[in-house]
Amino acid sequence: MQNQDKIINMFNEIAPTYDKANKILSFGIDASWRSSACDLVLKNFKSTLNIADVACGTGDMIKAWKSSAKKANLTIEKITGIDPSKEMLKVAKEKLPECEFIEAKADEMSLNLNTQDIVSISYGIRNVVARTQALREFNRVLKVGGYLVVLEFTKRDKNGLIAKIRDFYLHNILPIIGGLISKNKEAYEYLPKSIEGFLDSNEFCRELQDNGFEIVIVKGFSMDISTMFIAKKVKNI
Ligand SMILES: C[S@@+](CC[C@H](N)C(=O)[O-])C[C@H]1O[C@@H](n2cnc3c(N)ncnc32)[C@H](O)[C@@H]1O
Question: What residues flank ligand 1, with Cβ below 6 Å?
Fold first, then answer.
Protein backbone atom coordinates (compact mmCIF):
# COMPACT_ATOMS: atom_id res chain seq x y z
CA MET A 1 0.00 0.00 0.00
CA GLN A 2 1.79 3.18 -1.16
CA ASN A 3 -1.04 5.07 -2.74
CA GLN A 4 -1.75 8.05 -0.48
CA ASP A 5 -5.52 7.98 -1.06
CA LYS A 6 -5.66 4.30 -0.08
CA ILE A 7 -3.77 5.01 3.16
CA ILE A 8 -6.08 7.89 4.06
CA ASN A 9 -9.12 5.76 3.28
CA MET A 10 -7.81 3.00 5.53
CA PHE A 11 -7.62 5.50 8.43
CA ASN A 12 -11.19 6.61 7.61
CA GLU A 13 -12.29 3.00 8.00
CA ILE A 14 -10.55 2.31 11.32
CA ALA A 15 -11.23 5.74 12.90
CA PRO A 16 -14.16 4.67 15.14
CA THR A 17 -12.09 1.93 16.82
CA TYR A 18 -8.62 3.57 16.53
CA ASP A 19 -8.32 4.77 20.15
CA LYS A 20 -9.49 1.47 21.64
CA ALA A 21 -7.14 -0.58 19.44
CA ASN A 22 -4.23 1.76 20.15
CA LYS A 23 -4.63 1.45 23.91
CA ILE A 24 -4.83 -2.33 23.81
CA LEU A 25 -2.05 -2.86 21.28
CA SER A 26 0.43 -0.54 23.01
CA PHE A 27 -0.63 -1.61 26.54
CA GLY A 28 -1.35 2.10 27.12
CA ILE A 29 2.35 3.04 26.90
CA ASP A 30 1.87 5.27 23.85
CA ALA A 31 0.46 8.06 26.05
CA SER A 32 3.74 8.22 28.01
CA TRP A 33 5.79 8.41 24.76
CA ARG A 34 3.77 11.44 23.66
CA SER A 35 3.90 13.22 27.01
CA SER A 36 7.66 12.64 27.45
CA ALA A 37 8.27 14.26 24.05
CA CYS A 38 6.03 17.26 24.87
CA ASP A 39 7.63 17.74 28.34
CA LEU A 40 11.13 17.73 26.83
CA VAL A 41 10.40 20.23 24.07
CA LEU A 42 8.49 22.66 26.27
CA LYS A 43 11.60 23.10 28.45
CA ASN A 44 12.91 25.31 25.63
CA PHE A 45 10.05 27.81 25.81
CA LYS A 46 9.02 30.64 28.11
CA SER A 47 6.43 32.59 26.11
CA THR A 48 3.05 31.72 24.59
CA LEU A 49 3.06 29.11 21.87
CA ASN A 50 1.61 28.34 18.47
CA ILE A 51 1.63 24.62 17.78
CA ALA A 52 0.64 22.63 14.68
CA ASP A 53 0.05 18.92 15.22
CA VAL A 54 0.25 17.19 11.86
CA ALA A 55 -1.36 13.77 11.19
CA CYS A 56 -3.23 14.56 14.41
CA GLY A 57 -5.58 11.61 13.95
CA THR A 58 -7.98 11.40 16.89
CA GLY A 59 -6.15 14.17 18.77
CA ASP A 60 -4.04 12.36 21.39
CA MET A 61 -0.88 14.40 20.71
CA ILE A 62 -2.91 17.60 21.09
CA LYS A 63 -4.13 16.35 24.46
CA ALA A 64 -0.50 15.65 25.43
CA TRP A 65 0.59 19.19 24.41
CA LYS A 66 -2.19 20.70 26.47
CA SER A 67 -1.42 18.78 29.64
CA SER A 68 2.36 19.27 29.34
CA ALA A 69 1.89 23.02 28.80
CA LYS A 70 -0.34 23.19 31.87
CA LYS A 71 2.32 21.38 33.95
CA ALA A 72 5.03 23.74 32.64
CA ASN A 73 2.85 26.81 33.26
CA LEU A 74 2.95 27.79 29.60
CA THR A 75 0.12 29.26 27.55
CA ILE A 76 -0.78 27.81 24.19
CA GLU A 77 -2.10 30.67 22.07
CA LYS A 78 -3.29 28.34 19.35
CA ILE A 79 -2.99 24.66 18.58
CA THR A 80 -4.06 23.43 15.16
CA GLY A 81 -4.67 19.77 14.32
CA ILE A 82 -4.09 18.77 10.70
CA ASP A 83 -5.06 15.47 9.09
CA PRO A 84 -6.42 14.40 5.71
CA SER A 85 -8.78 11.77 7.17
CA LYS A 86 -12.31 13.13 7.68
CA GLU A 87 -13.24 10.30 10.04
CA MET A 88 -10.15 10.59 12.26
CA LEU A 89 -10.86 14.34 12.50
CA LYS A 90 -14.47 13.65 13.42
CA VAL A 91 -13.30 11.72 16.52
CA ALA A 92 -10.72 14.43 17.33
CA LYS A 93 -13.34 17.18 17.13
CA GLU A 94 -15.61 15.28 19.54
CA LYS A 95 -12.74 14.94 22.04
CA LEU A 96 -11.40 18.49 21.61
CA PRO A 97 -14.25 20.77 20.53
CA GLU A 98 -12.27 23.90 21.49
CA CYS A 99 -9.46 23.21 18.98
CA GLU A 100 -9.13 24.15 15.35
CA PHE A 101 -8.71 21.38 12.79
CA ILE A 102 -7.76 21.49 9.13
CA GLU A 103 -8.41 18.62 6.72
CA ALA A 104 -5.12 18.55 4.82
CA LYS A 105 -2.06 16.47 4.04
CA ALA A 106 1.32 17.17 5.63
CA ASP A 107 2.81 18.43 2.40
CA GLU A 108 0.15 21.05 1.80
CA MET A 109 -0.92 22.57 5.11
CA SER A 110 -2.66 25.89 4.76
CA LEU A 111 -0.67 27.60 7.51
CA ASN A 112 1.26 30.83 7.07
CA LEU A 113 5.01 31.06 6.63
CA ASN A 114 7.21 31.27 9.78
CA THR A 115 4.28 31.23 12.23
CA GLN A 116 4.65 28.08 14.35
CA ASP A 117 6.83 27.60 17.44
CA ILE A 118 6.37 23.83 17.32
CA VAL A 119 5.31 21.35 14.65
CA SER A 120 4.67 17.80 15.83
CA ILE A 121 3.83 14.59 14.03
CA SER A 122 3.31 11.43 16.06
CA TYR A 123 3.19 8.09 14.25
CA GLY A 124 2.27 9.95 11.08
CA ILE A 125 5.36 10.60 8.96
CA ARG A 126 5.52 6.91 7.92
CA ASN A 127 2.15 7.38 6.22
CA VAL A 128 3.14 10.47 4.27
CA VAL A 129 4.03 9.44 0.72
CA ALA A 130 5.34 12.92 -0.24
CA ARG A 131 7.75 12.94 2.73
CA THR A 132 10.37 15.37 1.39
CA GLN A 133 7.69 17.89 0.44
CA ALA A 134 6.21 17.49 3.95
CA LEU A 135 9.57 18.17 5.63
CA ARG A 136 9.92 21.28 3.46
CA GLU A 137 6.41 22.31 4.48
CA PHE A 138 7.28 21.85 8.21
CA ASN A 139 10.31 24.08 7.63
CA ARG A 140 8.16 26.67 5.83
CA VAL A 141 5.56 27.06 8.62
CA LEU A 142 8.03 26.97 11.55
CA LYS A 143 9.74 30.08 12.85
CA VAL A 144 13.55 29.98 12.68
CA GLY A 145 14.51 28.47 16.07
CA GLY A 146 11.20 26.57 16.25
CA TYR A 147 11.08 22.85 17.00
CA LEU A 148 9.95 19.86 14.99
CA VAL A 149 8.96 16.83 17.08
CA VAL A 150 8.56 13.45 15.42
CA LEU A 151 7.52 10.23 17.14
CA GLU A 152 7.81 7.17 14.95
CA PHE A 153 8.44 3.44 14.68
CA THR A 154 11.64 3.31 12.68
CA LYS A 155 13.15 0.44 10.69
CA ARG A 156 15.40 -1.71 12.87
CA ASP A 157 18.26 -4.09 12.67
CA LYS A 158 16.65 -7.56 12.66
CA ASN A 159 19.27 -9.13 14.93
CA GLY A 160 18.93 -9.52 18.67
CA LEU A 161 16.24 -10.91 20.92
CA ILE A 162 14.29 -7.66 21.39
CA ALA A 163 14.12 -7.11 17.62
CA LYS A 164 12.87 -10.67 17.14
CA ILE A 165 10.19 -10.26 19.83
CA ARG A 166 9.11 -6.93 18.33
CA ASP A 167 8.92 -8.45 14.83
CA PHE A 168 6.93 -11.44 16.06
CA TYR A 169 4.48 -9.16 17.88
CA LEU A 170 4.10 -6.81 14.90
CA HIS A 171 3.65 -9.54 12.29
CA ASN A 172 1.75 -12.21 14.19
CA ILE A 173 -0.11 -10.76 17.17
CA LEU A 174 -0.90 -7.14 16.32
CA PRO A 175 -2.79 -7.86 13.03
CA ILE A 176 -4.98 -10.44 14.78
CA ILE A 177 -5.90 -8.24 17.76
CA GLY A 178 -6.13 -5.05 15.66
CA GLY A 179 -8.18 -6.95 13.06
CA LEU A 180 -10.60 -8.24 15.70
CA ILE A 181 -11.16 -4.81 17.24
CA SER A 182 -11.45 -2.87 13.97
CA LYS A 183 -12.85 -5.69 11.77
CA ASN A 184 -10.12 -4.60 9.33
CA LYS A 185 -7.15 -6.97 9.51
CA GLU A 186 -5.57 -5.49 6.38
CA ALA A 187 -5.16 -2.13 8.13
CA TYR A 188 -3.20 -3.76 10.93
CA GLU A 189 -1.11 -5.81 8.47
CA TYR A 190 -0.17 -2.46 6.92
CA LEU A 191 1.50 -1.29 10.16
CA PRO A 192 4.52 -3.68 10.12
CA LYS A 193 4.83 -3.27 6.35
CA SER A 194 4.90 0.52 6.67
CA ILE A 195 7.60 0.32 9.35
CA GLU A 196 9.74 -1.84 7.05
CA GLY A 197 9.10 0.59 4.21
CA PHE A 198 10.24 3.53 6.37
CA LEU A 199 13.77 4.67 7.22
CA ASP A 200 16.09 3.82 10.08
CA SER A 201 16.90 6.59 12.57
CA ASN A 202 20.14 7.67 10.88
CA GLU A 203 18.55 7.90 7.45
CA PHE A 204 15.66 9.97 8.84
CA CYS A 205 18.09 12.32 10.65
CA ARG A 206 19.89 12.91 7.33
CA GLU A 207 16.57 13.83 5.68
CA LEU A 208 15.83 16.30 8.48
CA GLN A 209 19.28 17.88 8.11
CA ASP A 210 18.81 18.13 4.34
CA ASN A 211 15.64 20.13 4.94
CA GLY A 212 16.98 22.88 7.19
CA PHE A 213 16.86 21.16 10.59
CA GLU A 214 19.54 20.58 13.21
CA ILE A 215 19.09 17.40 15.26
CA VAL A 216 18.70 18.19 18.98
CA ILE A 217 17.74 14.82 20.50
CA VAL A 218 17.10 11.33 19.17
CA LYS A 219 15.80 9.04 21.89
CA GLY A 220 14.31 5.55 21.91
CA PHE A 221 11.42 4.69 24.22
CA SER A 222 10.56 1.28 25.69
CA MET A 223 13.54 -0.69 24.38
CA ASP A 224 13.57 1.42 21.22
CA ILE A 225 10.10 0.37 20.13
CA SER A 226 9.29 4.02 19.49
CA THR A 227 11.79 6.75 18.56
CA MET A 228 11.55 10.46 19.29
CA PHE A 229 13.30 13.01 17.07
CA ILE A 230 13.54 16.60 18.24
CA ALA A 231 14.99 18.93 15.62
CA LYS A 232 15.38 22.70 15.45
CA LYS A 233 14.74 24.79 12.36
CA VAL A 234 18.03 26.57 11.71
CA LYS A 235 17.26 28.18 8.36
CA ASN A 236 14.58 28.80 5.78
CA ILE A 237 15.00 26.57 2.76
C1 LIG B 1 -1.21 6.18 13.14
S2 LIG B 1 -2.20 7.60 12.99
C3 LIG B 1 -1.48 8.68 14.20
C4 LIG B 1 -2.48 9.61 14.81
C5 LIG B 1 -2.00 10.44 16.00
N6 LIG B 1 -0.96 11.38 15.64
C7 LIG B 1 -1.55 9.57 17.15
O8 LIG B 1 -0.45 9.80 17.68
O9 LIG B 1 -2.31 8.70 17.54
C10 LIG B 1 -1.61 8.25 11.47
C11 LIG B 1 -2.38 9.45 10.94
O12 LIG B 1 -1.69 9.92 9.77
C13 LIG B 1 -2.67 10.47 8.91
N14 LIG B 1 -2.11 10.62 7.56
C15 LIG B 1 -2.04 9.72 6.55
N16 LIG B 1 -1.47 10.27 5.48
C17 LIG B 1 -1.16 11.55 5.81
C18 LIG B 1 -0.57 12.64 5.11
N19 LIG B 1 -0.14 12.53 3.85
N20 LIG B 1 -0.41 13.81 5.76
C21 LIG B 1 -0.82 13.94 7.05
N22 LIG B 1 -1.39 12.96 7.75
C23 LIG B 1 -1.57 11.78 7.14
C24 LIG B 1 -3.83 9.48 9.01
O25 LIG B 1 -5.03 9.99 8.53
C26 LIG B 1 -3.81 9.15 10.49
O27 LIG B 1 -4.71 9.97 11.20
Answer: 4, 7-8, 11, 54-57, 60-61, 83-85, 88, 105-106, 122-124, 127-128
